[in-house]
Amino acid sequence: MATSESCAVETKTLPIQLPLDFSSIQSVPESHAWPESNEDQVENNGDGSLVLPIIDLNDPKAMELIGYACENWGAFQLKNHGISKSVIEELEVETKRLFDLPKEQKLKALRSRDNPTGYGTFWITPFFQQRMWQEGFTIIASAVQDAKKIWPNDYQRFCDAMKKFEDESRVLIEKLIHLSFKFLGISEEEEKNWVGPNNHAGAIQLNSYPICPKPENAMGIAPHTDTSIFTLLHQSQSSGLHIFKDGSGWFTVPLVPDTIVINTGDVLHMLSNARFKSALHKVSVNNVKHRYSMVYFYRPTMDQVVSPLVPKNNSDEEPRFRALTFKEYVGIKDKYLDKALSIVSIKED
Ligand SMILES: C=C1C[C@]23C[C@@]1(O)CC[C@H]2[C@@]12CCC[C@@](C)(C(=O)O1)[C@H]2[C@@H]3C(=O)O
Ligand SMILES: O=C(O)CCC(=O)C(=O)O
Ligand SMILES: [Fe+2]
């Protein structure tokens, strides 16, 4: 996260913070002002010479295209991904229904330090001095408990929409794991340890980025990498996601109909022995259209041991990360955020 806008502090010392009441806000308060946030927001893809890959999952070369995108970008947009239009539509309706509620109703499901699910600001918020122009809702395992707090008599349709999104996302991500592991030369025997009901934990993150009166001074979400194996993302109503490409800079991910965005996370970076990037990404906001995003994280279970899988097939290559449980890695990320990957890397003499 070595960008000028990054201002991560080392430990999470601040108390839990509430999202702003965006319904009444007329200007960007001091607490949410990022003076230099958009200075390096160069549209590198402006001349069309280099763009984030758009891959068709039905392409006979899908495996190579996905492998190439993961190596060079840590992200791509995917067509013919198999997530039904009706599932995306319901997901959008329910996400908007949630965020359109009055603040007091959303606060009934407020997250806490001990309970990471429900309504609130991003988990990474305390690492930054400035606040982000966002409100979110996190679902782990089931939405029922939190949705019931918000809609005691009308939570089922929200939960059904989330469940369908999770089910279809999981199927897609397991296909992507299959293709990317094959690309890396990881055996099907090994692949079995990373897919299936007992070998993963899913999480959904719904994000709302309200219209901002001075977007050039605000930040939707600060640059970060996800902790996942793969992350699947649908951006709704407006673009705003930017991916950092080493040596080139920030690229805007355009809204392309019928595609979803896939990015690789820290765990796949470690499993691939750093062959695949863990995509650094951020979100900008705008003064025209309220933006939403719906995100599914495919992660290992807490007791799974994460270590590079590639050297097992290639004795010339040294492992670049030490083996550790996912729980230990989450603990390190929780404390050191963007430094977590370098903390678990094996330093060369
Ligand atoms: C399952 C999870 C991944 C996540 C932390 C969390 O427990 C719930 C929210 C996720 C999210 C979404 C926004 C970016 C991110 C870094 C954050 O602050 O919260 C991710 C976390 C992650 O990938 O580690
Ligand atoms: O809203 C987006 O496009 C990205 C959100 C994100 O990075 C996340 O939830 O991890
Ligand atoms: Fe993210």
Automatic annotation (TrEMBL):
Keywords: Iron, Metal-binding, Oxidoreductase
InterPro entries: DIOX_N (IPR026992), IPNS-like_FE2OG_OXY (IPR044861), IPNS-like_sf (IPR027443), Iron_ascorbate_oxido_reductase (IPR050231), Oxoglu/Fe-dep_dioxygenase_dom (IPR005123)
Gene Ontology molecular-function annotations: metal ion binding; oxidoreductase activity
Entry-linked SUPFAM superfamilies: Clavaminate synthase-like
Ranges for domain Fe2OG dioxygenase: 197-300
Family in the record: Belongs to the iron/ascorbate-dependent oxidoreductase family.
PANTHER family assigned: 2-OXOGLUTARATE (2OG) AND FE(II)-DEPENDENT OXYGENASE SUPERFAMILY PROTEIN-RELATED
Record-given protein name: Gibberellin 3-beta-dioxygenase 2-like
Gene giving rise to this polypeptide: LOC107495297
